[in-house]
Amino acid sequence: MTDFRRLEVGELAHSLTLDLYRETRRFPTDERFGLVSQIRRAVVSIGANLAEGSARGSKEFAHYIGMALGSSNELEYLLRVAYDLTYLRAASYQEQAARVSRMLVGRRRSVRR
Predict the structure, then answer these.
(1) Closest Cα partner for 75 from 94, 56, 59?
(2) What is the pLDDT of residues 30-56, one digit of tens each?
(3) Residue from 8, 10, 11, 39 nearest 26 by CA
(4) Contact between 53 and 31 (Cβ < 8 Å)
(5) Torsion sign (Cα): 17, 21, 23, 27
(6) Measured between alpha carbons, how far is 69 from 14 in angstroms, rounded to an integer?
(7) Taking every pair of C-alpha atoms in the chain, what is the biggest distance, in angstroms?
(8) Using CA atoms, how far apart are residues 77 and 17, in angstroms rounded to an integer?
(9) Percent of the chain with pLDDT over 90
(10) What span, in angstroms and rounded, lies between the C-alpha atoms of 34 and 41?
(11) ∠ CA(108), CA(65), CA(4), 5° rounding?
(12) Which of 9, 69, 99, 103 has the greatest count of CB atoms below 10 A from its CB?
């Protein structure tokens, strides 16, 4: 069993979650139930899947990492949309989400071994 609080990818995902919650407060109010909701759901899902999966065996953990990876890829796209619509001022969030995705791929490989 892995302590999710000790995973570097989990800490990065948590930091990104907090940043995006703060950042999405600035989005237009008509996006509250659209893009804001989707971004928040996707980013929270990354950390939540790591937390839940870390309490399981390695095969199941790999499955949960895969779900976190799906959420991370979804988040990358949502952040691209938000940036292109000028709701986000910097592309750094997209870069952070891409880093999380790369780290999840690496972590899944190491768990599967």
Answers:
(1) 94
(2) 999 999 999 999 999 999 999 999 888
(3) 39
(4) no
(5) positive
(6) 14
(7) 46
(8) 15
(9) 80
(10) 11
(11) 100
(12) 9
91: Cβ contacts below 8 Å, ≥ 6 apart = 83
Structure tokens, 1 = 């069993």
Pull the structure tokens for residue 74.
């979804």
Q: Is the pLDDT of residue 77 over 80?
A: yes
The one-letter amino acid code at 94 reads: Q
pTM for the predicted model, two decimal places: 0.91
Six token digits for residue 10 = 């989990």
Q: What angle do CA 107, 111, 113 make, to 5 degrees?
A: 125
Q: Which residue has the tokens 């592309």?
A: 91
Which residues lie closer than 8 Å to 56 by C-beta, 6 or more apart? 1, 64
